[in-house]
Design brief:
Strand order of the largest sheet: 3-2-1-4-7-5-8
CATH architecture: Alpha-Beta Complex
Strand content: 15-25%
Number of domains: 1
Order of helices and strands: EHEHEHEHEEHEHHEEH
Number of helices: 8
Distance between the termini: 42 Å
CATH topology: Spore Coat Polysaccharide Biosynthesis Protein SpsA, Chain A
Helix content: 40-55%
Shape: globular
Radius of gyration: 17 Å
Largest sheet: 7 strands, mixed
């Protein structure tokens, strides 16, 4: 059995429809919601939905602790229950759940899959030019400095064979947002795991408010150099 992790914070306008669409795929995939104490009733709604579907699970967190720590906590929860593959995606419909079918198939031949907006066939819909520029620049920045063969290392839509996540010391990842995505991919690559980028169409959220901030962007830019320097010093030793 496989599972998809969906971190949430105030996603009551999106989450019910997203859950229904995932289960409608009939992929034998469970769902784990990791909710950061949403104030809009997201957690309560999931609790109600769980009474009708035992494959829906939720972790209620005491406060807003951030995307990265939500994913790490979700990963550990999945480890304890021996899921074969772990997917993660956003709650706001920017990620089409239909791609889970492709990811699941690709994980039969590779160790992890990246839902890529920046390879042939991928795209972003609904972003203003400055946000698109910032994202493209950030990915190029990380790719060149870290010397990794990934065109979209800040995507939040990907899938892993569980052994990958167990072997990359996820407890050491402290970043949130873009930084978390970059380090997760970087650690998997440094372990020599085989990956594939699958083109996806990313659609900007219609309901709710984006959680991206200037602090998260700055954190990611600094993190790239931390990873690079740690690699250099490790090599010198």
């Amino acid at each position: 059995m496989d599972i998809v992790i969906i971190p949430t914070y105030n996603e009551i306008n999106n989450i019910k429809k997203l859950i229904e669409k995932i289960f409608a795929l009939n992929l034998d995939i469970d769902i784990l919601i990791v909710d950061d104490n949403s104030s809009d009733g997201t957690g309560e709604l999931i609790d109600k939905m769980r009474t009708e579907n035992s494959r829906l699970n939720i972790i209620h967190r005491e406060k807003k602790l951030g995307y990265g720590s939500a994913c790490v906590q979700g990963f550990k929860w999945c480890f304890e229950r021996n899921y074969g593959c772990i997917f993660k995606m956003d709650a706001d419909f920017s990620h089409n759940p239909g791609y889970l079918c492709i990811f699941k198939e690709e994980l039969k031949t590779v160790d992890f899959v990246i839902g890529s907006r920046y390879i042939k066939g991928g795209c972003i819909k609904g972003w203003p030019w400055y946000r698109l520029f910032l994202s493209r620049f950030g990915n190029l920045y990380a790719r060149l400095i870290l010397n990794i063969p990934v065109y979209d290392c800040t995507t939040g839509f990907n899938g892993f064979n569980t052994y990958v996540l167990k072997n990359i010391e996820i407890d050491k990842i402290k970043a949130n947002g873009y930084g978390f995505q970059i380090e997760l991919v970087y650690r998997a690559l440094k372990k020599g795991y085989k990956f594939k980028e699958v083109p996806i169409a990313f659609v900007d959220r219609i309901c709710g408010v984006s959680k991206i901030s200037k602090r998260i962007i700055f954190e990611a830019m600094v993190l790239v150099w931390k990873l690079k320097l740690s690699e250099i010093f490790k090599y010198k030793k």
